Amino acid sequence: MNTQASRLIELNKLADLGNKSPSSKIISVCSGKGGTGKTFFSANFANQLSKLNQRVLLIDLDLNFSNLNVLLNHTSTRTIANFFEQSELLDDIIFSYSSNLDLIFGDSGRSDYPRVSREIIDYLFISIQKIQHRYDFIIMDSSAGADNLVIHQLKKSDYNVIVTSPEPTAVMDSYVVVKLLVENDSSAKKYVVVNKCIDPEEGENAFMNLSIAVNHFLKKKIDLLGFISQDTSAHKSILNQELLLNFDNDAIAADEIYRLAEQFITIAQMANNNQPG
Ligand SMILES: Nc1ncnc2c1ncn2[C@@H]1O[C@H](COP(=O)(O)OP(=O)(O)O)[C@@H](O)[C@H]1O
Ligand SMILES: [Mg+2]
Question: Which ligand is nearest to the CA of 71?
């Protein structure tokens, strides 16, 4: 890490600014298993929040398989990798997608990808602090799994939205993420989205199984954000490299994500009202 980033981290430690945001707005979207729909959810949730007059920054922080650029059919020349290797500042890698939605793209598959350490993640969060007044929500689409870097990132966020599919394997892997977060004393608020549900019952069963395990073995409570249907339009929108709302305004999943976005705005408002100061 070069001296500029190290100095920034030191200064922020001194100012005791290195941890959570003053108002709760950083959401990390995560999962145990890959392919549960993190990127689909992150992009469409961010878009729906922006349609509800929220100013949103969406960051592709999947260091292994970043594909927000593929989902949105966008070729980016400046990416989070340039920020990590400190050839670009955060402000210089932000793209305006629509009036309320800004994006930072990822860049996986580079053989010379900069090594990302906990300090680099700290550097990202400190840099976000300097621009966060411009946004109501900052959403991070994360890598699947729960390695040390992901756990570090999830802990530093205000909210973790765990996206699972209804299958027991995905639910089990979600439990492992929650367990590791609890073992690492994470205070981030955790919400579950069950995606790709054939019917509401599937979603309810999956959430109940996860919630019972978390309650019984970890003595913690986990909240449901909601269910998203397995939707052919969702699948086709991805094939078409379009956001669901643009592809099919009337899609069931688009309506469900809209309602999750509305609900999340209320959750965040209540959390911010209850914050001291
Ligand atoms: N609600 C949904 N309905 C139908 N297919 C979905 C839905 N959500 C995700 N998918 C499918 O799952 C695949 C994986 O989604 P993606 O967002 O890339 O997962 P992740 O980012 O967790 O790896 C997509 O390519 C899409 O085909
Ligand atoms: Mg993804």
Answer: 1
